[in-house]
Write a structure and sequence with these properties.
The protein is an alpha+beta fold. 30% of the residues lie in helices and 20% in strands. The protein has 3 domains: 3-26 and 266-281, no CATH class; 56-155, wza like domain (wza like fold, 2-Layer Sandwich); 159-244, Outer membrane lipoprotein wza fold like. The strands form 3 sheets. It has a 6-stranded mixed sheet, covered by helices on one side. The chain has a 3-stranded antiparallel sheet with strand order 3-1-6. The longest helix has 23 residues, at 259-281.
Length: 282
């Protein structure tokens, strides 16, 4: 085989390889790649958000006797709850609202207690909203203070933080009993095309230590079976940028992967091949 044919075939191979690389579709972009229509996936049991120290709560008592109910409600303040948070662009998820008709709030102490009118100190840490409402109702009726109380409990500052390669990173206030990592990512506008779907990190503080979990959005079984599929308040969800995004921080970082770069390489090799062929002919 003469030199001309070798050079020609080498150039053709490089061109085909460059076109294949430029046109190849990434395999790590689509979610839930391991399941098909009508598949059944085992997921974690529903995990409701539980009250923790430093949580802020709105607790309102209603009764057929409004004057009696007033004894168990904190006084009304002039400003609306959540106004400052919203001024900083904090988003809210849930059926309730963080702007809560001007009622004062209970802040859970480091010991997990609140100081409730008439009832005194109540230990509330570890309870869900429903459990706390039932507990207070039981205390009011059990002590023969109100015969027909209706108790509503709302979270006011409970939220999660979403960072990294999402459309709108930030802290998102939630006012519902449960939130999934998919809910949080949806609130943040979903991942950008540069976000890595295969190793989303969730940071959770437990027992004074921060644990790091990883979930894979391309693997539905991994996602729905993860202990962090249901988020807790103050969890941090971090989406790592892919290698192409990382290289953007470098000067001409993505040049080696661009189609124009490969076309330039092919053009240069073709020119070299023509030059060598002309030299051989001479």
């Amino acid at each position: 085989m003469n030199t001309k044919k070798v050079i020609t075939r080498a150039c053709a191979f490089v061109m085909a390889l460059s076109l294949f690389t430029a046109c190849k579709a990434p395999k790590d972009v689509a979610y839930f790649q391991d399941v098909q229509t009508a598949s059944t996936i085992q997921s974690q049991a529903l995990s409701a958000i539980r009250i923790q120290p430093y949580d802020k709560l709105q607790i309102v008592i209603h009764s057929k006797d409004p004057q009696l109910a007033m004894l168990f409600n904190l006084p009304v303040v002039t400003s609306r709850i959540g106004q400052n948070a919203n001024s900083f662009g904090t988003n809210t998820l849930g059926s309730g609202s963080s702007n809560s008709e001007g009622l004062s709030t209970y802040t859970v102490s480091t010991a997990g207690d609140i100081d409730f009118p008439v009832l005194g100190k109540l230990h509330v840490a570890g309870m869900t909203r429903e459990e706390l409402a039932g507990y207070i109702k039981g205390e009011l009726m059990g002590r023969d203070l109100i015969k027909d109380p209706t108790v509503s409990v709302e979270f006011l500052n409970t939220g999660v933080t979403v960072l990294g390669e999402v459309k709108t990173p930030g802290r998102y206030i939630i006012n519902r009993d449960a939130i999934t990592v998919l809910d949080a990512l949806a609130l943040a506008g979903d991942l950008t095309i540069q976000g890595m779907r295969e190793n989303i990190k969730v940071l959770r503080t437990e027992g004074g230590q921060t644990k790091v979990y990883e979930i894979n959005l391309t693997d539905a079984k991994n996602l729905y079976g993860s202990p962090v599929y249901y988020l807790h308040q103050d969890d941090v969800v971090y989406v790592e940028p892919n290698n192409m995004r990382k290289r953007e921080t470098m000067v001409n970082g993505n040049t080696s992967l661009s189609a124009s770069f490969w076309l330039s390489v092919v053009s240069m090799l073709t020119s070299v091949a023509v030059l060598v062929t002309n030299l051989i002919k001479k």
